[in-house]
Specification:
By secondary structure, this protein is mainly beta. It is built from 2 helices and 11 strands; from the N terminus they run ββαβββββββββα. β6 and β7 form a beta hairpin. The relative contact order is 0.25. The structure holds thymidine-5'-diphosphate. Thymidine-5'-diphosphate binds next to β3 and β4.
Length: 152
C-alpha cells in the first residue's frame, strides 16, 4: 500500500489516488461567507451509506481505532483540524495518511487494520459507513487479523 500523499493535488468528485488507500476529492463550493462540501452517496461514495458517526474531543496523544472490520467499508473525513490515518494490510505494508481538509475523504475497504492518531486540538473525524454497528464484524486482535489476511 504505497503512493498515498499527505496533500492530494486534485480536487473534484473523482478518485484521485488509485492505490489501496483511495483518496477522494469532494466538491468544494466556495463562498465569501464560508465553504460548503456536499456528498451524494450514490455518486461520490462507493457504497450505500447506512451509518455516520464522528469522533471529537480527542485528548492530546490519544489514538482511536486499532482494529479491523470483516466486511464494513468506511470513508474518513477530517471535518475540522487534522489527524493521521494509519492503515496496515497485515502483510507487512502500512501507510500513513494525514487528513487535514474537509473536502477530502479516504476510503477504506474491509480487512485493513486502521488506527487514528495525532489528532489536533478540536479535530473532528466524520466516518461514513456501509453497515449498521455490529461488534461481531470487528477484529480487535492484531494477530487474529493477520491470520485472517493470510487466509484471503
Ligand atoms: P470503536 O469502534 O472501538 O471506536 P474507535 O474505532 O473509534 O476507536 O467504538 C467505541 C465504542 O463505541 C464501542 O463500545 C462501540 C461503540 N460504538 C457504537 O455503539 N456505535 C458505533 O457506530 C460505533 C462506531 C461505536
Amino acid at each position: 500500500m504505497e503512493g498515498a500523499r499527505s496533500e492530494p493535488r486534485v480536487a473534484g468528485p473523482e478518485v484521485i489516488e488509485p492505490a489501496a488507500l483511495q483518496l477522494f476529492g469532494f466538491r468544494k463550493i466556495p463562498d465569501p461567507s464560508g465553504n460548503l462540501t456536499p456528498v451524494e452517496g450514490a455518486h461520490e461514495i462507493p457504497f450505500a451509506i447506512r451509518r455516520a458517526y464522528w469522533i471529537y474531543d480527542v485528548p492530546g496523544g490519544a489514538a482511536r481505532g486499532g482494529h479491523d472490520y470483516r466486511s464494513l467499508e468506511e470513508v474518513f473525513v477530517a471535518l475540522s483540524g487534522s489527524f493521521d490515518l494509519v492503515v496496515d494490510d497485515g502483510r507487512g505494508s502500512s501507510v500513513r495518511q494525514t487528513l487535514n481538509r474537509s473536502y477530502y475523504g479516504v476510503y477504506l475497504p474491509a480487512m485493513v487494520w486502521r488506527r487514528l492518531e495525532n489528532f489536533s486540538t478540536n479535530a473532528v473525524c466524520l466516518i461514513l459507513a456501509s453497515q449498521a454497528y455490529d461488534e461481531g464484524d470487528y477484529l480487535r486482535d492484531y494477530a487474529d487479523f493477520c491470520d485472517a489476511r493470510r487466509q484471503m
